TrEMBL record:
Domain of life: Eukaryota
Region (Disordered): 44-85
Name assigned to this protein: TPH domain-containing protein
């Protein structure tokens, strides 16, 4: 009877260790999945920032070109030259 009790305790202890290891692996897997998702989101946000900066640069370039053209037309009017259309 004593041998059975010891054997049962060993089985129970082994089962508890196994459950603990499984829980640790689950937690590690969940953390890895979370890290992957966070990395993916950060990559998307970084790409979005790059696109927005590119749009802002193009907008600034277009505004500068427009202002240059307006200034050029004003200068041509002041000089009495025909406008280039």
């Amino acid at each position: 009877m004593k041998k059975l009790t010891n054997h049962d305790r060993l089985i129970e202890t082994g089962r508890e260790r196994l459950q603990q290891k499984l829980q640790e692996r689950r937690m590690a897997a969940m953390a890895a999945k979370t890290d992957q998702e966070r990395d993916r989101v950060n990559a998307i946000l970084s790409k979005q920032d790059d696109v927005e900066q590119g749009v802002d640069r193009r907008k600034a370039d277009m505004q500068r070109k427009l202002m240059d053209r307006i200034e050029q037309e004003k200068q041509q009017r002041a000089d009495g030259k025909p406008l280039n259309t």
